[in-house]
Write a structure and sequence with these properties.
alpha/beta; 7-stranded mixed β-sheet; single chain; 3-stranded antiparallel β-sheet; 13 helices
Length: 455
């Protein structure tokens, strides 16, 4: 099968080089639609025949006919619920404007990888990404390939010491970055801004103390943001870091953000690093780049993140489900060098991860990231953004946008509008606001519709 697919793909690629006419595209779309209907019918028939076989096995094991019929009724109900959910989910995607999800359609390769992944019974990438014990039901080699894509994007390499792993989401990645910083500096104080993701305050909480009425926390300081912005106030940060270093000799573990949750603001990473280096204060910097860390290469008018060479940071996190648009809620945390880890005899390797056990859709995730990085034209990010901003101006709708962010902050509309478009609502400086996030997957029809509803 793989050899056959390779030959056929190469043939298709060579035929397409001669040109794709409108008639050819229409014919291909019709064929895909017909094949999908056949595939759905085949899957339905497979399910029914497999069920018949399983019911025969239950009968042999002594289950009554009434019990088996009740199982069939339960399964049929679940199938109906799943079909309804899939239909509702598809409708929700069309008007999804309020949160960090780039819900672009899956490519042919991603769809096929997801199909193949249904044949994988189980994977658990427990322990260190680059170590193997006696447990072999892993996909660590593929996890490493995913990390290699990210290493290259951020200008580092595993050969030079870079290390990372795929986490359960940005919250785990931020927690890992903070804890790794404290460990590397043998203590210290954590600094983050009031505009940081809400997972960050949770990350410095270690759990209830003995009396269960207090929560043990990592020493930390919340830094104010700049006026009318979620950017960290650099002067306030440096003042707090300098004071604690001077009075308590506390090294600084600093979490900065490249694209804040509500407004998409970018912390001034370069200035922070420059001023800390001038003061010669020991520091560890983790950069939360959950959304914009996934931007494709060479995008115009985009908040693309510089490489590790330009940003002298220690670790970074980027979400798989945000700009990459992966169907799984995942994140990657990447460090400049491998962290210290204790050996765990049960798994016969070291483990410096937070979660320990890790699941992964190994091939579709790799394909999705590769396509975002390498198969998008230079205007993929800003095409819809520019169109939407022109409509906002033409309709005299007040909005605020941070630089090249894809986030448009507006006055909070009615609850009905917020529900219809799943808008995130919040307060900044006492003002009730909402934001609209524009991604490449949005159709102009629905962008026009939301404009009409909020003006």
């Amino acid at each position: 099968m793989p050899t056959d697919i390779k030959k056929r793909l190469l043939l298709i690629a060579s035929q397409n080089a001669k040109g794709c006419t409108a008639a050819k595209i229409k014919k291909l779309n019709k064929k895909i639609s017909d094949l999908q209907k056949q595939a759905d019918k085949i899957q339905s028939d497979l399910f029914l025949n497999r069920s018949a076989l399983e019911f025969c096995e239950l009968k042999k094991r002594g289950f009554s006919d009434a019990k088996i019929k009740s199982f069939a009724t339960q399964d049929a109900k679940l199938c109906s619920d799943a079909q309804t959910f899939i239909k509702d989910n598809a409708n929700l995607v069309k008007r999804f404007f309020g949160y960090h999800l780039n819900l672009i359609p899956e490519s042919a390769a991603v769809k096929y990888m997801r199909y193949l992944e249904t044949k994988i019974r189980s994977v658990d990438n427990c322990g260190d990404t680059y170590e193997d014990g006696f447990f072999h039901l892993t996909c660590k080699h593929q996890e490493q390939k995913i990390l290699d894509l990210l290493y290259e994007h951020f200008g580092i390499s595993h050969a030079d010491g870079a290390w990372g792993y795929l986490t359960s989401g940005g919250s785990e990645s931020n927690r890992w970055g903070i804890e790794n910083g404290v460990q590397m500096l043998n203590g210290g104080r954590v600094y983050f801004s009031a505009g940081a993701h809400y997972s960050v305050p949770k990350a410095v909480q270690l759990g209830p103390m003995a009396n269960a009425k207090q929560v043990a926390v990592i020493p930390h300081t919340v830094i104010e943001t700049e006026k009318d912005s979620e950017k960290i106030n650099v002067d306030s940060l440096i003042s707090a870091v300098s004071k604690n270093w001077r009075e308590k000799h506390e090294p600084a573990v600093i979490l900065l953000t490249w694209g804040t949750t509500k407004t998409g603001a970018l912390d001034d990473v370069e200035t922070v690093i420059k001023r800390l280096d001038e003061l010669k204060i020991p520091r560890y910097i983790h950069l939360d780049a959950a959304l914009y860390g996934g931007l494709g290469n060479g995008q115009k008018n985009a908040p693309e993140i510089p490489t590790f060479k330009k940003f002298d940071i220690d670790s970074i996190s980027v979400s798989m489900h945000k700009y990459f648009g992966s169907h799984e809620i995942k994140s990657a945390v990447i460090a400049r060098k491998k962290p210290f880890a204790n050996s765990v005899d049960y798994i016969s390797m070291t483990d410096s991860t937070t979660a320990g056990s890790r699941g992964l859709a190994p091939f579709s995730t790799y394909q999705r990231i590769s396509e975002i990085f390498n198969r998008k034209d230079a205007n993929d990010y800003n095409r819809n953004i520019e169109y939407f901003e022109k409509m906002l101006k033409a309709n005299h709708i007040w909005y605020k946008r941070q630089g090249f962010a894809n986030i448009f902050v507006i006055k909070c509309p009615s609850d009905a509008v917020c529900h219809k478009y799943e808008l995130s609502t919040f307060c900044i400086n006492g003002k009730s606001l909402a934001h609209i996030m524009i991604f490449p997957f949005h159709k102009r029809k629905f962008m026009q519709e939301i404009i009409s509803d909020i003006k």
